[in-house]
From TrEMBL:
<comment type="similarity">
    <text>Belongs to the ABC transporter superfamily.</text>
</comment>
<dbReference type="Pfam" id="PF00005">
    <property type="entry name" value="ABC_tran"/>
</dbReference>
<dbReference type="InterPro" id="IPR027417">
    <property type="entry name" value="P-loop_NTPase"/>
</dbReference>
<keyword id="KW-0547">Nucleotide-binding</keyword>
<dbReference type="InterPro" id="IPR050166">
    <property type="entry name" value="ABC_transporter_ATP-bind"/>
</dbReference>
<keyword id="KW-0067">ATP-binding</keyword>
<dbReference type="InterPro" id="IPR003439">
    <property type="entry name" value="ABC_transporter-like_ATP-bd"/>
</dbReference>
<dbReference type="GO" id="GO:0016887">
    <property type="term" value="F:ATP hydrolysis activity"/>
</dbReference>
<dbReference type="GO" id="GO:0005524">
    <property type="term" value="F:ATP binding"/>
</dbReference>
<feature type="domain" description="ABC transporter">
    <location>
        <begin position="12"/>
        <end position="241"/>
    </location>
</feature>
<dbReference type="InterPro" id="IPR003593">
    <property type="entry name" value="AAA+_ATPase"/>
</dbReference>
<dbReference type="InterPro" id="IPR017871">
    <property type="entry name" value="ABC_transporter-like_CS"/>
</dbReference>
<protein>
    <submittedName>
        <fullName>ABC transporter ATP-binding protein</fullName>
    </submittedName>
</protein>
<keyword id="KW-0813">Transport</keyword>
Amino acid sequence: MNTLHRGEVVVSHLTQIHESNGRKTHAIDDISFTIPAGKFVSVVGPSGCGKSSLLMMLVGLAEQTSGTLSVAGAPIKGPDPDRIGVVFQEANLYPWLSARKNVEFPLMLKGISTDKRADMALKALELVGLREFADRYPHELSGGMKQRVSIARGIVQDPDVLMMDEPFAALDEQTRMVMGDELLNIWERTGKTVMFVTHSLTEAIYLSDHVIVMSARPGRIVDRIDIDLPRPRTFEMTSSPEFTRIRNRIWEQIRSA
């Protein structure tokens, strides 16, 4: 890992074309951007624009047709949880394992000793405010708590970058706002780079330093907006004239793209 670029994400001239039964689908077309280390960046756009495809390539679970991807100064050649943590829309917890054991699971696959992985898992659960629920099973946890366990599992190996694919989409609005504040708290405490895919313009603006706006398929970047709202963010900001102006700008870009 190049420590000079620790946490930096660089996407250069990325294109992805799917081929099935002789038909080609142009999913993403020649996109380039950089996420500086430690920044929180959201990606928005209409359904089918390639947001999730982009994230899957960045976490090493899909391949690009052309272009390059790098995280922390090194190319992405496959899943690498030491550099890149990932949280998906569904928590996907193992129902027969406790919260702690769910967080420990990727550490067990790496052969980390029982005592060390238990300690690492408890520290991750403490970071997301769930240490006292370490021995609870998924059916004993609320939707928001399950997602916090999923976040703990994503950060337990202390990656430089956290990739999140609509992690709060299945939650009710109130829980979603609470989870957004908790995510910002985790981000501020850890200093990790975060790329956050969402359909919610309000969520993207509220959380982010920058918002990347993608067009309909083939996905292209049509705007990148710096969010200059002060931190810490508050719910009252969502009704401010500046917040409304940014949301309208993004909506116009998506609608006309």
